[in-house]
């Protein structure tokens, strides 16, 4: 069996996670042949990384409008989609129409209409989509699924899930394109897709009814003004007012940020270092969600993006007891440092509280690499020769849709003040 040929579209902050793995670790099974992006400077920088960091020859580059030409000339087996979230569907659908399978970053897309278009394309083309949910592969998350499936706490009735983004990582979503909900779906889609997918994965069910509150309460100019802030700026780099600001990001302080963004601004005008206390932010930073699942379990979920530490707390309550999992993660700025630190675990524990017995701690193997050790396992699953997976961690387009539907429904609930039935969002969708 020969090597599979890959092209990648969208060569921003998450792109090297995929192309770096192919270029360095999986050369025996995989071949990277081309990049596609709206920005030539960014692709040139990625080719520089390929040669200087990974010892891989540069690949052909194509502008976004040359996507079809790239597919025709390079004849890839699989297209990797790591573009801005709102464009995922465009490249996913066109890649399948041109005969390719797809690996896409999360979220698969950002709204119901684009999700339906993807489902229609899968039905029409019979091609395959993989959504790269690396958190599924972290040893402690796999252990949670194993414990629940084993019946150690019986039937799961409720889950409480609290996720904290700190003032380094959380703030980063408010500097860049994610701050416009049209691009990202907001944090309830872009970020929480990981978390809602984990709940679906853990309890082996799907969301049925969603209700949510959310608001922009910390970031944004008006909130800063209400706290007494009087000094503002548009961007950080080269701005004296930002030098002492802990929320400022200096693009010229990092080779990655400089090469990928600062040097590329002249092509598309994208500013990676916008002030988190500027105008034009229309995503929430404070969110609370209640979800009823098809198996009748209830989820209470919160996400806050300005906390003093990074991590999450989860409790599963069941007919025979309770499981608690607490995780502290490393903080990270995308493209600003070692990508292995993204989601790397500083501390974690899992405790089982049986109904009528003493509680006990559960040993979990130590994961190595980003996202709690999930990144290397996912990459091997995508590009290597993975062993049979009894946990079924590989996610397809249905998993991708069910993860974002909770966030999409939550966004609708925030807008309307009403609960939302996921079945109403997904009506007339062929799920084969």
Q: What tags apply to this protein structure?
A:
432 residues, alpha/beta, 16 helices, 15 strands, globular
Q: What does this protein structure show overall?
A:
There is one protein chain. This protein is α/β, with parallel strands linked by helices and 432 residues long. The protein contains 16 helices and 15 strands. Strands 14-13-12-11-7-10-9-8-15 form a nine-stranded mixed beta sheet. A six-stranded parallel beta sheet has the order 3-2-1-4-5-6, sandwiched between helices. The mean pLDDT is 95.
Proportion of residues in helical segments: 25-40%
Strand order of the largest sheet: 14-13-12-11-7-10-9-8-15
Going by helix content, strand content and strand pairing, the class is alpha/beta
Mean pLDDT across every amino acid position: 95
């Amino acid at each position: 069996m020969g090597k599979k040929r890959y092209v990648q579209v969208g060569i921003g902050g998450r792109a090297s996670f995929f192309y770096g793995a192919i270029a360095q670790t999986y050369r025996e099974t995989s071949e990277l042949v081309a990049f596609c992006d709206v920005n030539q400077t960014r692709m040139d920088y990625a080719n520089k990384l390929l040669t200087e960091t990974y010892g891989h020859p540069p690949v052909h580059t194509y502008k976004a409008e040359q996507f079809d030409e790239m597919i025709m000339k390079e004849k890839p087996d699989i297209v990797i989609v790591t573009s801005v979230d709102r464009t995922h569907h465009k490249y996913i659908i066109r890649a399948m129409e041109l005969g390719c399978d797809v690996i896409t970053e999360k979220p698969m897309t950002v709204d119901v209409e684009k999700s339906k278009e993807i489902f229609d394309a899968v039905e029409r083309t019979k091609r395959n989509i993989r959504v790269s949910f690396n958190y599924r592969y972290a040893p402690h998350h796999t252990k949670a699924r194993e414990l629940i499936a084993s019946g150690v706490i019986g039937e799961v009735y409720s889950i409480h899930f609290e996720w904290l983004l700190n003032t380094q990582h959380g703030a980063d979503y408010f500097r860049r394109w994610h701050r416009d909900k049209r691009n990202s779906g907001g944090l309830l889609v872009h970020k929480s897709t990981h978390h809602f997918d984990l709940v679906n994965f853990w309890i082996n069910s799907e969301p049925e009814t969603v209700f949510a509150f959310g608001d922009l309460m910390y970031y944004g100019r008006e909130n800063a003004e209400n706290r007494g802030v009087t000094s503002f700026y548009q961007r950080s780099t080269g701005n004296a007012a930002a030098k002492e600001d802990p929320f400022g990001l200096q693009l010229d302080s990092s080779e990655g940020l400089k090469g990928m963004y600062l040097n590329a601004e002249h092509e598309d005008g994208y500013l990676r270092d916008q002030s988190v206390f500027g105008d034009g932010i229309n995503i929430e930073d404070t969110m609370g969600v209640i979800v009823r699942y098809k198996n009748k379990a209830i989820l209470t979920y919160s996400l806050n993006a300005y906390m003093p530490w990074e991590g999450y707390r989860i409790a599963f309550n069941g007919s025979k007891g309770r499981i608690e999992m607490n995780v502290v993660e490393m903080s990270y700025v995308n493209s600003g440092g070692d990508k292995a630190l993204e989601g790397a675990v500083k501390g974690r524990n899992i405790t089982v509280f049986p109904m009528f017995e003493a509680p006990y701690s559960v040993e979990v193997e130590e994961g190595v690499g980003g996202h709690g050790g999930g990144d290397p396992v996912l990459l091997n699953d995508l590009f290597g020769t993975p062993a049979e997976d009894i946990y079924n961690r590989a996610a397809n387009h249905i998993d991708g849709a069910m993860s974002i539907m909770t966030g999409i429904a939550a966004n609708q609930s925030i807008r309307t003040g009403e609960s939302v039935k996921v079945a109403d969002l997904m009506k007339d969708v062929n799920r084969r």
